[in-house]
Amino acid sequence: MDPTLLIVLGLVVVVLFLVSVYNGLVGRRNRVDEALAQIEVQLKRRHDLIPNLVNAVKGYMGFEQKVLTDVTQARAAAVAAGAQGVASQVQAENALSSTLRSLFAVVENYPDLKANQNVLSLQEELTTTENQISFSRQHYNATVLDYNNNLQVVPNVFVAGMFGFTKRDFFEAEPEAANVPVVDLSLK
User: Fold this and answer.
1) Which residues, 6 or more positions from 175, have their beta carbon under 8 angstroms from its beta carbon?
2) Using an 8 Å Cβ cutoff, are 126 and 49 in contact?
3) What's the whole-number mean pLDDT along residues 115-121?
4) Is the pLDDT reported for residue 177 higher than 50?
């Protein structure tokens, strides 16, 4: 067999291998981006519900203004953090979850507020949204794990380095943020 033909065949095999690895990494990176977009959809939904909740409770909780201000500021910080990367977004969203837990704890001290249908409806929507955020976060983290593992195995690690693929961060929640706040707004 002609040595030139062997060299050409060898180069074709190497190129096909590089293309295959590159395409696999691109596909995984795109799945990570899609999973993050799903989290962002749910976070936007939560961000949109919060002003309605604050307005619904504002009349009942006039002297609890600090709690309402904290929730509003945490929401604004969470919205702004979306453009600053996953790490900033995680921190801001965890702070928002914490302030929402404070709000719900205060709501329990107001019997009229606990009976308000708007507040009950918003509470249910927020609880549903928190569950969807949790599921989206789990999917994202599983996708990131798959992507990061693929970046670190031989021979992919060499191709990833050549083409600038980088490790992605997990979307981690604070331990207490992993639990959806349970608020009993029923009349007792």
Assistant:
1) none
2) yes
3) 83
4) no
